[in-house]
């Protein structure tokens, strides 16, 4: 089976590697143009491009796929299937119509829940008990196509977006290989998505990192897990905005005399901050220009005393 592949970040690179390891013919990869990154803001190739070049696969990096000229490499490839994973570009109907057997998308949620750009982050933030991978037949809508296969994974209390991403990326690779083999045998059945239960996972904005300690400790702990590795949490203390990376709920029902944001305890185990409901023990923090550190090491260079208050970062 002749397959073209469209994807950009590490999540997609895992799927491409799985396809190559399974022996599929992948003559063309589409990925986003190189972007500036790092301290020097030099151009960096996407994770998918790096895998493709390492395997000797032709790479095309159109800014958009709207015009016949931007679509030409895909037409010339004449794939039977286009596999898409976290590509980052909208595919117009003209592109969806190119592959003889259509376009298959690897989506990191149990559709129709969490359609859109950030399904892993939003599932953790919402406190979902599980998530998973859906292999979907693409149409012109936003993650609205018929479902071809689905598998679930529990979301552990310790899961961050980073850890859950890696588990889902591996699962997605396994599932797309199985789906393509079933497609080759004519054994892949499409099931329309349910009309009920639709939610949208909007892209994570950096402004969301600012934590409001008038919220409950449970909500804030989930947000920190959801925002690791980007954008982390942020709060101001002693006039300085610091990043908050990890925390645990002390006791959502504990009696406390402090106001929301007030530091109740400081120890090597963490900085306990009163919340609108319960309290949060901060265990991993980062000062401006510094590294992400366990609380014990952080406090050596940035002392915080009980009675100090955390406020929402500007």
From TrEMBL:
Role: Attaches a formyl group to the free amino group of methionyl-tRNA(fMet). The formyl group appears to play a dual role in the initiator identity of N-formylmethionyl-tRNA by promoting its recognition by IF2 and preventing the misappropriation of this tRNA by the elongation apparatus.
Protein name: Methionyl-tRNA formyltransferase
Gene name per UniProt: fmt
Formyl transferase C-terminal domain residues: 203-302
Transferase as UniProt keyword: yes
E.C. numbers: 2.1.2.9
Keywords: Protein biosynthesis, Transferase
Residues annotated as domain Formyl transferase N-terminal: 1-180
Similarity comment: family membership: Belongs to the Fmt family.
Xref: CDD domains: FMT_core_Met-tRNA-FMT_N (cd08646), Met_tRNA_FMT_C (cd08704)
Molecular function GO labels: methionyl-tRNA formyltransferase activity
Source species taxonomy: Bacteria, Pseudomonadati, Pseudomonadota, Betaproteobacteria, Rhodocyclales
């Amino acid at each position: 089976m002749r397959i073209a592949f469209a994807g950009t970040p590490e999540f997609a690179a895992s799927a491409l590697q799985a396809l190559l390891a399974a022996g599929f013919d992948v003559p063309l990869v589409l990925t986003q143009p190189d972007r500036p990154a790092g301290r020097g803001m030099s151009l960096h190739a996407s994770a998918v491009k790096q895998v493709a070049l390492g395997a000797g696969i032709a790479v095309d990096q159109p800014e958009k796929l709207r015009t016949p000229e931007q679509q030409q490499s895909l037409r010339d490839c004449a794939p039977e299937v286009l596999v898409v994973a976290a590509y980052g570009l909208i595919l117009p109907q003209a592109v969806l119509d190119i592959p003889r057997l259509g376009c298959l998308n690897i989506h990191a949620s149990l559709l129709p829940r969490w359609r859109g750009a950030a399904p892993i982050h939003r599932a953790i933030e919402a406190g979902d008990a599980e998530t998973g991978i859906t292999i979907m037949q693409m149409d012109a809508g936003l993650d609205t196509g018929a479902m071809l296969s689905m598998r679930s994974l529990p979301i552990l209390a310790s899961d961050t977006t980073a850890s859950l991403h890696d588990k889902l990326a591996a699962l997605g690779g396994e599932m797309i290989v199985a789906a393509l083999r079933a497609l080759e045998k004519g054994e892949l059945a499409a099931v329309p998505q349910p009309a009920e239960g639709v939610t949208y996972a909007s892209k994570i904005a950096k402004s969301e990192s600012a934590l409001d300690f008038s919220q409950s400790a449970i909500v804030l702990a989930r947000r920190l897990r959801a925002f690791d590795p980007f954008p982390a949490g942020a709060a101001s203390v002693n006039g300085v905005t610091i990043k908050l990376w990890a925390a645990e709920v002390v006791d959502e029902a504990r009696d406390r005399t402090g106001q929301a944001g007030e530091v109740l305890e400081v120890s090597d185990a963490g900085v306990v901050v009163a919340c609108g409901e319960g309290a949060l023990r901060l265990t991993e923090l980062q000062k401006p220009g510094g590294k992400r550190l366990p609380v014990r090491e952080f406090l050596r260079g940035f002392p915080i005393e009980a009675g100090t208050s955390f406020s929402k970062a500007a």
